[in-house]
Amino acid sequence: MSSKKVKLAWDELIMSEQERQAIGEYLAFLSEGKTERESWQMLEGWARNAGFIELDEVKGFKPGQKVSLAVRGKAGILAIAGIRPISEGFRLIAAHLDAPRLDIKQRPLYEEEGLAFLKTHYYGGIKKYQWTAMPLALHGVVILRDGHIVEIVVGEADEDPILTITDLLPHLAKDQYDKKLREAITGEGLNLLLGHDPSKEDGEERVKLAILHLLKDKYGIEEDDFVSAELEVVPAGKARYAGLDRSFIAGYGQDDRVCSFAAWKAIEEIEQPEWTTLVLFADKEEIGSDSNTGMKARYLENFIAELVTLQNGTYDGLMVRRALARAKALSADVTAGYDPNYAEVMDKRNSAFMGRGVVICKYTGSRGKSESSDANPEFIAEVRGIFDEAKISWQTAELGKVDQGGGGTIAQYMAIYGMEVLDCGVGILSMHAPWEISSVADVIMMMRAYHAFLVYKD
């Protein structure tokens, strides 16, 4: 018996007009949804147009009923009632909306020698040197003392100024060159340059004062309002095709908005599935899935309890536990694409190759599978059968060599309920960099794979 024959997804791919349009929608999703709030707002709007109703407004959960749950405006779940009762289990695809970035500190604004800056605290795993000397934008919300929400986006429109973090000129970088790469740029050195046009008023820190006047005039923000703000520094500019043949997509936050978008497209046109069908969009994955919008917050469990109650007319804790334990899920997250420029950190026999389709990962974790959800082979066999039947190009991979490092996903936080879980996404080049690279063919295959998984009748 020979092993699975490696095929390029391009060889299997005849892209429909609908799929071409979906790639355009994905580029817009990356360009306009650069924070978890913005991403969920887009998804929630699409879901509303597709007939999903907010949980609080739903009176029952009969086959075909579409329900949505927003979690603090930064995460959420979409569900469609299946023909089978939810107590028999459900199908779930779960991705995350947050991405590595720089967050603005609570007391960020200061002036130094006529230059005004905002102090930042990096979020998630970044290479700090990648965030200097490049165009940056500021996205987020400021909640005023009276509860009023001020939305801010600076650096994206053609008429907007961009922001940036300065770097040291090479002529004076002798000592910087001698440092390890991780130490050459410090976290406290990632200070966002705001301006240097001083106020006409007399006194000290006239540039800072001018910035405060600008914030007050344009947004109604006082300096103290930074305490109740959620402002994120992200790369400026739109996602776009990459490569002379336009075979790649370049954009910020593809880990993991590429899987989030594919999950949405998978459920978008489902009307009355055999199994109750869910897609979940989590927050805080990049920093451990904590807080009340992360996967550890149990909103999936609470949502299933609500659906069981809607379906049966009364709460039944045992039925909730059965539904969760009998569920089958794909943890939708990306993995490292094989890059010949850095082949030394990859196990070539167990790598995700660009253009060879969707990737399944039996386990993630670090080194000895630490903090991993190790999928059962019975479930892997079921998923590969679904993909083969639907003629999906797929491959299997690990995240680099065993002792090189590693990483985790939200799979383990679903597995605690006893459900079957398998990591499934696409390979990404330059993962966690300000601009990440995905393959158009892989993205299309992932959308097909997720849809096939949700509608499969076993």
UniProtKB/TrEMBL annotation:
<dbReference type="GO" id="GO:0008270">
    <property type="term" value="F:zinc ion binding"/>
</dbReference>
<dbReference type="GO" id="GO:0005737">
    <property type="term" value="C:cytoplasm"/>
</dbReference>
<dbReference type="GO" id="GO:0004177">
    <property type="term" value="F:aminopeptidase activity"/>
</dbReference>
<comment type="similarity">
    <text>Belongs to the peptidase M18 family.</text>
</comment>
<dbReference type="GO" id="GO:0006508">
    <property type="term" value="P:proteolysis"/>
</dbReference>
<keyword id="KW-0482">Metalloprotease</keyword>
<keyword id="KW-0862">Zinc</keyword>
<dbReference type="GO" id="GO:0008237">
    <property type="term" value="F:metallopeptidase activity"/>
</dbReference>
<dbReference type="Pfam" id="PF02127">
    <property type="entry name" value="Peptidase_M18"/>
</dbReference>
<keyword id="KW-0645">Protease</keyword>
<protein>
    <recommendedName>
        <fullName>M18 family aminopeptidase</fullName>
        <ecNumber>3.4.11.-</ecNumber>
    </recommendedName>
</protein>
<dbReference type="InterPro" id="IPR001948">
    <property type="entry name" value="Peptidase_M18"/>
</dbReference>
<keyword id="KW-0031">Aminopeptidase</keyword>
<keyword id="KW-0479">Metal-binding</keyword>
<keyword id="KW-0378">Hydrolase</keyword>
<dbReference type="InterPro" id="IPR023358">
    <property type="entry name" value="Peptidase_M18_dom2"/>
</dbReference>
